[in-house]
Fold these 2 entries.
Entry 1:
Amino acid sequence: MTTTRTKLAILLWAATPERPELCATPFLHAAVAAALDCEVEIHFSGPATRLLVAGVAEQLFSTPDRQASIYSFMQQASSHGVRFFGCAMALRANLSEQEATIPEYNARSTMTDFVLRAIDPQWSTLVY
């Protein structure tokens, strides 16, 4: 019996503001999966949670020609219905209470939330 996977959970771990060259691909993959009618979540962990701070991703570019900001890729994914979740523990460690988050940010999550996605046969997972 084959299980059709129509859900994708992406974990951002190494794709951080310090490594913008790694940041565009996860959002492009998310947008494509959502356009193919998959339910898609991006889980931000560790320093990747800094991408959820208003203004941070707008200043980051994955290529030297600076044609599109990382934030533009995030907006594209969100416009296709991709949901953004920030690890509660990482948010506490990496964001101050005074920092505003981007409008595309949906909610806090936990490590358990992503692990549950990884062991659910309906979900596929990618880690960046």
Note: The chain has one domain: 7-127.
Entry 2:
Amino acid sequence: MKVYQHIFEHTPDALLLVDQTGRITLANAQAETLFGYDRSELVGQAVEMLVPPRFAARHVGHRPGFMAESHSRPMGAAVELSARRKDGSELPVDIMLSPMIMDGRHFTLCVVRDITERKAAEDKLRQQTAELQKLHAELKELANRDSLTGLLNRRAFHEHVAQMLRTARRRKESAALLMIDLDHFKQVNDRFGHAEGDHVLKMVAAALKATARENDIVARHGGEEFVVAVLGASEAESIAAAERLRLAIAAIKNIKSSITASIGVTTCAPQVHKREASLILEELLAQADRALYAAKNNGRNQVCHFNRLAQPGTPL
């Protein structure tokens, strides 16, 4: 028996023996240290004295049920628990409950472990993980953006449009692709320098973003070329969208020389047969590029739709 008393007294966790009425009958030295009470202040008192007041009533209500159907509760349970010290301060704890019968009486052995340091380490780890996730998201966003204009870059555009085409196929909707090239942009760099050229590109990007619909995908495709993908647009609607963008670019202020753009447009009808989105996108880019080339050849500062190339005399 002395061996068991020695174990009870000197175990590194706080130990409390609680009877069926919820009264503390035994407490060890670590319980005194942990809770700040002398054991004479603990023995004979309701165990709820060690429970934060906001949980005490629930604990009292829960205790009879536990005593009636006693079961072990291991350390490391998912529920976060708190204990209350004599000075009113609280600390996070882990608790193991073990029912036992002595001399025909039912008791519960409560093993209480201070997990303040573990909680602090977990909180720090969660914070570090959150910071790393945020940094990863920021780096991913930076990797998807053109460094000058802030628009999606070519690679990200292809990824987003492939997803858009899959959505269009699922919804049985059309989609349009607009390829935009600034007219005589080289002259801007030659006359005013590359700083002004960069400024113009930023202004064009802002105009495109402001004019496009919220769900449209706008990107810088390279150099002075931009692309816009539009979900659910018919041929007529895609031409109208391109005209709005063309006019928005022509209306840009605060640049040293006005700028215009030629726009090639193509519209993808709702897909009946399943095809790889990347193949559809490759085809649309080729069609929009041909339409853009026609717009350039026809005098620039205009919109040309791929479907009209077979009818060169047809007005847009």
Note: Confidence is low (pLDDT under 50) at residues 312-316.
